[in-house]
């Protein structure tokens, strides 16, 4: 009976690996088709993206990997999407455990660096942090404040970027994580999420990020040293 169980276990394990390989190949094929339709380029990896941003989800763990890098123009602006993963090992001896964290990212390049503003879904962790004094910036929208948490290096800049028109738009969509920052490839607005890069999700994130960039007031761009209507943004 024991040999039968071993054979059955091995068959299940091999079948699971085979299904995983097939699913990964099909995901890559979807990304390749999506990229080809938009005349984007695909790369297996790009080491420059291993430290794409300061802060989450980068700079953690070990065995960091970047894969399925797609890049091209989105509504006239350079943009990129890719897979990112790293491993974290905890414990020792028999209690030693290694966990792999997988993320997907989408970023739209900016014509000038904007002040760092971090917007994300409100959750229990944020509520506890606020109870202990964490600074969560709130705008004049109860619905937005209920659904999102905002952090920024410059509160005035946060209110300028999160003006009522953009706030109203964000309350109409599912809250996701995004922030303005300076990446290894220059200034960007970037969004990231747990899991693998899928063409449909990538497109949805790019649409959102492009909406954010389009909504930035002209005076904010001028403060950043770029004249609206100049190179880097469609007129």
Structure description:
By secondary structure, this protein is α+β, with helices and mostly antiparallel strands. It has helices spanning 2-37, 124-131, 142-147, 155-161, 164-170, 199-215, 218-223, and strands spanning 41-43, 62-74, 77-90, 97-109, 117-121, 148-152, 178-183, 186-194. The protein is built from seven helices and eight strands. Strands 1-2-3-4-8-7-5-6 form an eight-stranded antiparallel sheet. β2 and β3 (77-90) form a beta hairpin. The radius of gyration is 21 Å and the shape is globular.
Task: Please write out the topology.
Layout lengths: L1 H36 L3 E3 L18 E13 L2 E14 L6 E13 L7 E5 L2 H8 L10 H6 E5 L2 H7 L2 H7 L7 E6 L2 E9 L4 H17 L2 H6 L12
Antiparallel strand pairs: 1-2, 2-3, 3-4, 4-8, 5-6, 5-7, 7-8
Offer a quick outline of the entry:
The protein is an alpha+beta fold and 235 residues long.
Please report the distance between the alpha carbons of the first and last residues.
73 Å
Strand content: 25-35%
Number of strands: 8
The level of helicity is 25-40%
User: What is the N-to-C order of secondary-structure elements (H for helix, E for strand)?
Assistant: HEEEEEHHEHHEEHH
The global form is globular
User: What is the topology, as strand order, of the major beta sheet?
Assistant: 1-2-3-4-8-7-5-6
Give average pLDDT, whole number.
Answer: 87
Biggest sheet layout: 8 strands, antiparallel
Gyration radius, rounded: 21 Å
Low-pLDDT sequence parts: 15-19, 124-134
Structural class: alpha+beta
Number of helices: 7
